[in-house]
Structure formats: structure tokens, C-alpha cells
Design a protein that fits this description.
about 35% helix, conserved putative lor/sdh protein from methanococcus maripaludis s2 fold, alpha+beta, 6-stranded mixed beta sheet, single chain, about 400 residues, Helix Hairpins
Length: about 400
């Protein structure tokens, strides 16, 4: 009877102990599960891979030079009696810039003209005498030698009149040099001499410099390896290539012009070629001596793939981008970049049209990270915050 009672009691103890162990295991598992929370999605700004025609540029740095530059120098010596321009003024070809005292040169012209009148009178008198002598010779009333002498005298007087006329023309030229005029349309610079001073051809600085600003030219260099691309495009289009001038920070387009020439030799010391472009410069945004960034259009990539430049990241293995997968996780994708221009990167390989890529927020990501895409104002605020928090490379 005692054995029958002991056995059920032992079984009851075993059941209760098992239930306690199971409860302990379940509680422990529950605690461990609570200790590893699920990471929330990382907010990002995303963009789409676009497909369109993309211009291909060769980029370099150039210096703006004036299309024409003239130093206004005197060709005669004299005192400046008037200055007829304001520094920085726009002038046209033929405009009077300064006046040299014309009186000495006017007096010389008057003297030459008086001499011409005197010699013309002698010539006229000699011609009358020659006609009279010729009639007397026909009547055998005068010796032939006298007629011949008179003929020689008339010819000599006629030559003297021609000399006088040449001297008058020379005097007129000298008188015209008293007017210092602009030979081109342009802008005058800083005046180098004042009213009342004597100016002469020996004054190397002259009166002022006139610079033509529109059109204007640009000298820039490219690696000699680009020469074949330029020549191929010139043969292909049979027209001047387009050249764009940008500010030094590449944010402002200053003007659009055309390629004028490729210099006739390669600079051996630098392995570069020198090129010259011409711009209309109607807004005068290009200024002589200014350093600018230059883009030479050499081709157009049809159906090219582009993404915002911020999509492209640099890693130990080269450039890459984060691609947003359909399950809202990201994939690290190696890419090849052909060029970056105007905030857009042209992709050679690694991406497909219409794929979503991470534009901002990459520094929080790893392959497989779950993301949520921000839109509108939230995207703008995230981009601004990301710019402040992003690590400096």
C-alpha cells in the first residue's frame, strides 16, 4: 500500500520539476529576444538613373586675352592741349582721344601750300613763254635752242609743282597726327599722360591702352593625348567646335564660343597642346587676364546614363554607388564614371536606366541596410543635416 502511494508522488514531483525547467527556459528565451531589438530603417534621399543624350567635354584651364589691344602712341612730338576721354570709357574706331597742339603743323602746311601757289605761277608764266617762243620759231624769228631751253624750264617748273604737292600731302599727314584717335572699338584704360605735357614717339607708355572686349579670345591647354579626339571631331563635323567658359569654381557659365585654332606644335616640356577660342562676350563677363575653366565639346553620348554627382562614392576599389533594391535594402555596386559635369555624373558601367540610387545619406549605410526613402521637404532637410554630419574624407 505504501509503495502504491510513493510511486505517484514521485511522478508528480518529476512533472512539476519539468514544468519548472520549461518555464525557466521560456523566460530566459523571452529575455534574450528582448535584448536584441530590430534596427529601424535608415532614412535616405534617392534618385533615379536617367537616360538621355549627354555632351562629352574635354576640360582645361585658360586665360582670357583681348581680341585686340592697342597702345595709343604719338607719331609726332607736341604738347597735349586736350584729353577727350574718361578712363574706362567705351570708344569706337575713329573717336578722338587727345589733341596735340596743331599750330606748328598747320603753319608748315600753310607754308607748303604758299610755295605751291608760287611755283604754279612760275609754271604758268613759263608755259605762256613757251607758246610764244614756239610761234616765233615757226616764223623763223627765234633760235630753236631758245625754244628748247624754255621747254626744259617748263618741265623743271612742272616737277617743282609736283614736289610742292607731295610736301603738302606730307604736311597734311603730320597735321593729322595731332589728333590721337582710337583705331578700334573697345574700352580705354588708365591715362598715362596729362594735358599740358609733351608727348613724342619716344614715350613707350603712350597716351592710353585701348582693349577690345567683344569679341574676346581665350588661350587654354589640354593634354596632347586629347589631340586625336579633337581632330576626329573636327573632321566629323567640319565646323568649329563649341567651347564653354566657366568661372573658377565651375558654377557660373560665362560665355559660349567656338574653337579658333589648335596651335601648330606640342609643348614638349608639359606634354600639352595650346588652343585658342573666340567668344562674342556681349555681356563682358570675360575679362582680359582672367583665369577660367574651359570645356571643349568633342562628342555627344546618345542614351547616356546619368546620376547626380553625389551618388558617386569613392572606395579602396574605386568608385561605387548604393542601389536601392525592391525589398528596400541597399546594394553596393561598383561603377565606372566617364565624366562629371554640371553636377551630373555620366556612368560608363555598373548602373541601369531607371534604377533607384542613394543620393544622400550614404555614410550611414552598409550593404543590406534597410532604408526608407524621404521625399519633399523631409528630403531637403535630411540632405542639409547629412552635409553637416558627414565625415570629412
Amino acid at each position: 500500500m505504501r509503495r502504491k502511494i510513493v510511486i505517484p508522488a514521485i511522478l508528480l514531483i518529476v512533472v512539476l520539476a519539468g514544468a519548472g525547467v520549461f518555464a525557466s527556459i521560456e523566460g530566459s528565451a523571452s529575455k534574450n529576444s528582448a535584448a536584441v531589438p530590430v534596427s529601424p530603417p535608415v532614412p535616405i534621399v534617392a534618385g533615379t538613373v536617367a537616360q538621355h543624350d549627354v555632351p562629352i567635354y574635354l576640360t582645361g584651364v585658360g586665360t582670357v586675352i583681348a581680341y585686340n589691344t592697342d597702345i595709343i602712341r604719338a607719331q609726332i612730338q607736341g604738347q597735349i592741349v586736350s584729353i577727350n576721354f574718361t578712363e574706362g570709357q567705351r570708344v569706337h574706331a575713329g573717336d578722338l582721344l587727345a589733341q596735340i597742339d596743331p599750330r606748328p603743323y598747320q603753319a608748315q602746311l600753310d607754308q607748303e601750300e604758299a610755295t605751291l601757289d608760287h611755283d604754279k605761277a612760275h609754271l604758268h608764266n613759263g608755259q605762256i613763254n613757251l607758246q610764244r617762243y614756239s610761234k616765233l620759231l615757226e616764223q623763223n624769228s627765234i633760235a630753236r635752242e631758245q625754244v628748247e631751253n624754255q621747254q626744259a624750264a617748263v618741265e623743271e617748273q612742272n616737277a617743282q609743282v609736283k614736289i610742292d604737292q607731295a610736301l603738302i600731302e606730307a604736311a597734311k599727314v603730320q597735321l593729322s597726327y595731332t589728333r590721337l584717335t582710337s583705331p578700334i572699338d573697345g574700352m580705354v584704360g588708365i591715362r598715362q599722360i596729362d594735358v599740358g605735357n609733351i608727348i613724342s614717339p619716344s614715350n613707350t607708355n603712350g597716351l592710353v591702352v585701348v582693349t577690345q572686349l567683344d569679341p574676346i579670345s581665350l588661350i587654354f591647354t589640354l593634354p596632347e593625348t586629347d589631340l586625336s579626339k579633337i581632330q576626329q571631331q573636327q573632321q566629323k563635323t567640319n565646323a568649329p567646335l563649341t567651347v564653354l567658359a566657366y568661372s573658377q569654381n565651375n558654377t557660373i557659365k560665362l560665355d559660349q564660343g567656338t574653337l579658333g585654332l589648335v596651335n601648330n606644335e606640342i609643348v614638349q616640356t608639359t606634354g600639352s597642346i595650346q588652343l585658342k577660342a573666340n567668344f562674342p562676350n556681349k555681356s563682358n563677363r570675360l575679362w582680359p587676364g582672367e583665369l577660367v575653366n574651359v570645356r571643349l565639346l568633342v562628342d555627344t553620348r546618345h542614351d547616356g546614363l546619368t546620376v547626380p554627382a553625389s551618388v558617386v562614392q569613392q572606395g579602396p576599389q574605386g568608385p561605387y554607388a548604393y542601389v536601392v533594391k525592391p525589398d528596400s535594402t541597399v546594394e553596393l555596386r561598383p561603377i565606372k564614371v566617364a565624366q562629371v559635369s554640371d553636377g551630373q555624373a555620366l556612368i560608363d558601367s555598373g548602373l541601369k536606366a531607371n534604377e533607384q540610387v542613394v543620393v544622400d545619406g550614404q555614410y550611414k549605410l552598409q550593404p543590406g541596410t534597410l532604408v526608407t526613402i524621404l521625399h519633399g521637404q523631409a528630403a531637403e532637410e535630411a540632405a542639409a543635416q547629412s552635409a553637416l554630419q558627414a565625415p570629412i574624407p
